[in-house]
Amino acid sequence: QRLIRARYLMQTISAVETSLREDFDAMHAVLVLFTEEAHALDPQALPFLRADHLDSPDMRTFESLFQSGKPRCGQLRDSQRDYLFGKDTVAIGSVALAPLGPKGNIGLLAIGASEAERFHPGMSTEFLSRIADLVAFAITR
């Protein structure tokens, strides 16, 4: 419902962050967007948001995820974790990653957990796919 009520990009980003935190208890989450609109927003006002480019060196480390176009759960390399959650967040034990849009052309949603087995490769990602679809649609409308 928060996404439906959001009319502007900043409201949409805030709605996604609030829902992840309040509805799913996801205290470690990051939204990486590749849109020009995201680059125009103040990063200080939205610490949940990271504006980047799909072809940046940091994003190239997620190339196989974007090529598959499907969510993935499990562990991250240290460099990926540091980029997404910051260098001081060694407490991230596992992540759920969801490309946004076809082949991740809109961005990436990353949800981190301190438990190493919270997000694991054997778990279903269907619900994560639906969340990614909704977020991608809301961001591009």
Quickly describe the structure.
With 141 residues, the protein is of the alpha+beta class.
Keywords, please?
141 residues; alpha+beta; five-stranded mixed β-sheet; globular
Describe the structure.
- The chain is α+β, with helices and mostly antiparallel strands.
- The protein has seven helices and five strands, in the order ααβαβααβαββα.
- A five-stranded mixed β-sheet has the order 2-1-5-4-3, with helices on one face.
- Strand 4 and strand 5 form a beta hairpin.
- The mean pLDDT is 91.
Strand order of the largest sheet: 2-1-5-4-3
Shape verdict: globular
Helix/strand structural class: alpha+beta
In quaternary terms, these chains amount to single chain
- Return the string of H and E elements: HHEHEHHEHEEH
* Percent in strands: 15-25%
Helical content class:
40-55%
Largest beta-sheet characterization: 5 strands, mixed
Give the number of DSSP strands. Answer: 5
Secondary structure tally, helices = 7
Beginning-to-end CA distance, first to last residue: 15 Å
Task: Report Rg.
Answer: 14 Å
Average residue pLDDT: 91
Low-confidence stretches: none
What's the topology here?
Blueprint: H1 2-5, H2 9-24, E1 28-33, H3 36-40, E2 49-51, H4 57-60, H5 63-68, E3 72-74, H6 78-85, E4 94-100, E5 107-113, H7 126-140
